[in-house]
Amino acid sequence: MSGGRKVRTGVLISGRGSNLQALIDAAAADPAFPAEIALVISNRPGAGGLERAAKAGIATATIDHKDYEGREVFDAALHDALTEAGIELVCLAGFMRILTPGFVARWEGRMLNIHPSLLPKYKGVDTHARALAAGDTVHGCSVHYVTAELDDGPVIAQAEVPVLKGDTPETLADRVLEAEHRLYPQAWRTAAARLLD
Ligand code: GRF
Predict the structure, then answer these.
(1) CATH top class, domain 7-114+142-155+183-196
(2) Per-residue pLDDT tens for 3-25?
(3) Relative to the CA of 141, which ligand 1 atom is closest?
């Protein structure tokens, strides 16, 4: 039994943070939510998501990759900030840095990512354009555990959206993003509940 304990979650962002906002809103809407955001870290100074976190009263940190010589030291700084804050679960939400295998291994089973495709389809970038080019009629998003291989770890949850006639990568991205905002909180809840079991 969890006894109302909440899994301390760190969210890593690089940009506007609309998925971060969905996580903030989901936790605020349910007093019994099994997780809370204890820290938001951006690798980009001034990322819009930092303001969203501050507005919600969440601690923020900027760890600018440009201040570090190489991925190993940057990831070590991330790891230190997360462990100092007592973080147990990490959510990548539009975090645009590739993490080192060592960092990924240290957070195995405790780090989630949201990817805008129905994995295993379209790992990597330009997922919406690739779905359109392939003539797909269904597209969507996935939340998965992060493993050393890019966009490859075990999937926790997926959401489908239709591809409509006349869609551009932008219109399709907007439809997928709405699905992301519903999916990520659900998957976060699932992963957190597993840790509390
Ligand atoms: C989302 O499309 C997410 O799937 C991708 O990066 C984007 C982040 O958007 N990994 P936001 O910063 O959460 O608004």
Answers:
(1) alpha beta
(2) 689 999 999 999 999 999 999 99
(3) 4
